[in-house]
TrEMBL record:
Residues 143-302 form the JmjC domain. Belongs to the JMJD6 family. It catalyses: L-lysyl-[protein] + 2-oxoglutarate + O2 = 4-hydroxy-L-lysyl-[protein] + succinate + CO2. GO terms for biological process: positive regulation of translational termination. The keyword Transcription regulation does not apply. Keywords: Iron, Metal-binding, Oxidoreductase. Its cofactor is Fe(2+). It comes from the Eukaryota. This is 2-oxoglutarate and iron-dependent oxygenase JMJD4. One of its GO terms (molecular function) is catalytic activity, acting on a protein.
Length: 427
């Protein structure tokens, strides 16, 4: 991050107060296409897309050096089933059935990868029909299952990735996924986990995206406050069911070609179709620009749990703990883990400012290497945003009801340390 971008980010968050990234629709519904890496810097992306929370598409030039684009794809641009079977045949993968609805998503099962590929080949041979329905390999943690493989590299624009930095540190989970599916497979209407950003790269195939800016999904809710499963369904035009649909604007539409990367802004709801047999790589990620969105999302989720539990359970001294437990089971995180998340990110930044990062540490930890590459000013920016959210968390009534004695350091001590590190860095 250069000094001009640092100054721009400081002014942006000062002028917008506590607000999260903007959610205004794009003028004319146009999505920018980024053609060349050599003329597009990290600061350009940060200034023009992360801060205003606008989508964009990166050309296939940004992924042309990925080994997966050579080895996973035939000379005709189709999935290379033979190579994939050699590499992953014994893996077990999550597979969704696009023809079925379970709550507001497609039901999933675990299948051997070789069984899924056998199905996929038969599905193509039968004119894209099967009694098993349209199956879609989704949310496969390939990087976690095969850490030794180097099938792609994260573009620098997406390298300030707090989610994966934290979950790598605690060795519990990650938010890096591979998707593989036949023509006609699709993902229903949704926003990404924690209202994170996402980037999605087509290794091969084509996708059609329908995107709504953050906040616009409110017009698509039914009379009970539920979002639609499919935003193209005719039911949405029925005012008795969807009373505000007529106030909504048409979605932004993106046709994503092979090799291209789509950047999905924080909190933007979307629906995605595979127009051809397609393989893609997707990361969800949070950073200093949208960590306040994540915090707002967690507060909304807890409030929803509290409303629901109050309907069927008498108030008890332990109710706040039960609500935290339910929220974690639904979202994957509770308030105390969110504190730990902020602490890990902050301490990594303080360490960089105080000690720098030697080559040995960089070679062992890709997340820390990425922090170092983005520079000292980016570390200061991250700390300033962490302090803002951590201050709000520390003052939150529901957080203060929890037993915080297990947190080390205490929120107050951590805040003091971070503020001192910022002051020292800016001297």
């Amino acid at each position: 991050m250069d000094r001009a971008t640092f100054a721009r980010s400081t002014a942006f968050f000062r002028d917008s107060g506590n607000s999260s990234p903007a959610s205004a629709a794009l003028p004319g519904g146009q999505v920018d296409f980024i053609d060349k890496a050599e003329s597009f810097t990290y600061s350009d992306f940060f200034r023009d897309y992360l801060l205003p929370n606008h989508p964009c598409v990166f050309s296939a030039k940004f992924t042309e050096d990925w080994s997966s684009r050579r080895t996973w794809v035939t000379c005709h641009g189709k999935p290379n089933f033979e190579h994939l079977l050699q590499e992953f045949g014994e893996a077990v993968v999550p597979v969704a059935n696009c023809d079925l609805k379970e709550y507001n998503s497609n039901p999933k099962e675990q299948l051997p990868f070789k069984e899924f590929v056998e199905y996929w080949r038969e599905y193509i041979g039968s004119g894209y029909r099967s009694s098993r329905g349209c199956l879609y390999l989704k949310d496969w943690h390939l990087s976690r299952a095969f850490p030794e493989l180097d099938v792609y590299s994260t573009p620098v624009y997406f390298s300030s990735d707090w989610l994966n930095e934290y979950w790598d540190a605690v060795a519990v989970d990650d938010y890096r996924f591979v998707y593989m599916g036949p023509k006609g497979s699709w993902t229903p209407f949704h926003a990404d986990v924690f209202r994170s950003y996402s980037w999605s790269a087509n290794v091969c195939g084509r996708k059609r995206w329908l995107l709504y800016p953050a906040g616009h999904e409110e017009f698509l809710k039914d009379c009970h406050g539920n979002l639609p499963f499919d935003v193209t369904a005719p039911d949405l035009r029925d005012k008795r069911i969807y009373p505000r649909y007529s106030q909504s604007q048409p979605p932004l539409e993106i046709i994503q070609e092979s090799g291209e990367i789509v950047f999905v802004p924080s909190g933007w709801h979307h629906q995605v179709y595979n127009l051809e047999d397609t393989i893609s790589i997707n990361h969800n990620w949070v950073n200093g620009c949208n960590v306040a969105v994540m915090w707002s999302f967690l507060q909304d989720e807890l409030a929803a749990v509290q409303r629901e539990i109050s309907r069927w359970k008498d108030a008890t001294d332990e109710r706040h703990l039960q609500c935290q437990l339910i929220m974690k089971s639904c979202t994957g995180i509770d308030y105390k883990e969110f504190y730990n998340f902020l602490q890990v990110i902050a301490e990594n930044r303080v360490s960089l400012l105080e000690k720098g990062l030697d080559e040995e540490s960089s070679s062992r930890n890709a997340s820390k290497a990425a922090i170092s590459t983005l520079g000292m000013l980016h570390a200061v920016f991250d700390l300033k945003r962490t302090v803002k959210v951590l201050s709000s968390l520390s003052a939150n009534e529901d957080f203060r009801k929890l037993d915080l004695t297990s947190l080390s350091p205490s929120p107050e001590a951590l805040l003091q340390r971070l503020e001192a590190a910022i002051d020292a860095a800016l001297l």
